[in-house]
Amino acid sequence: MILDSCDIPVVLAPLAGGPSTPELAAAVSNAGGLGFLAAGYLSAAELAARRARLAELTSRAFGVNVFVPGPPGDAARVRQFAAEIKPDVSGAGAGLGEARHDDDDWDAKIEYLTADPVKVVSFTFGIPGADVIAGLRARGSEVWVTVTSLDEARRAAAAGADLLVAQGYEAGGHRGGTSDAPEEAVGLLALLQLISAARLATPVVAAGGIATGSAIAAVLCLGARAAALGTAFLDCPEAATALVQRSALHGAAPTRLTRAFSGRTARGIENGFLRAHSGSAPAAYPEVHHLTSPMRKAARQAGLADYVNLWAGQAYPLTATVPAADLVRDLWQQAQAALGRVASAFPSA
Description:
Layout: E1 10-12, H1 22-30, E2 35-38, H2 44-57, E3 62-67, H3 75-91, H4 106-115, E4 120-124, H5 130-138, E5 142-147, H6 150-159, E6 163-167, E7 173-174, H7 188-197, E8 204-207, H8 213-221, E9 226-229, H9 243-248, E10 255-258, E11 266-269, H10 272-277, H11 287-302, H12 324-345
């Protein structure tokens, strides 16, 4: 397993949609963790270019994360939502985008990653077909699948996944499993215990609300092979995080699950658009994502935080402004200290 070659059990969550950069992934891998490059929202050609840049920056292992396409949303509900949000979009100085459904260049990305394999390919938003998993594994890639429930964990393991990324309710950004229903969300500690009790042979990486070394130690104690962190890296200089989002990370507003920005449930820092439209936003990804994309782009450029998807996990106030490599090493030192304190406080008989 590729994690065996990592000095530090810290994985960079992919951070699709802006923050992901080759520089950030390389910094994490070079520090001893495992960096990931997000393929979401990129064409296969754009992914290849970023992967080539990443390979120039590190000789260590890294992974690539891919979105699994889902079914189209309800077109009538999308049109209704478009009419509802039009005044807000205009207020941000933009127009509505085309509410189209697409597969995020799925076939081309799978073809590219099969022809030119990487050490790890992880999947979000669903469980790829067993043929896709087998094809990537045959080329030497480990296949990781994001799961948010015990049922998803069982199905991903049965499909041939090499590792399960167990994502808890606390995580920032999109829920990465097959289920988009917020009422089905499970906290990370509960999810890890459920998976452990099921005695699945597939190893697990823990994700969701992890921001400190003590939290890393906790998930390791619950059987995880490593901890995946995303929000913790958003304010690192290597990340391409928008200035308006960096500023929000230093605030104290609560986070909330919403479909308002993309049509898929995601956790972000509360702002005006989220509060106004979370109750009516349909489950229609990526149609709503494309619908609001011009608004979000214009708002990022203008610094209008009320119209931007401020994705962040529940522990976002703990986010540090430090280089990614320093963060990886500091977190691991904290984790080792936490594990040592537990061992000293409760020595074996």
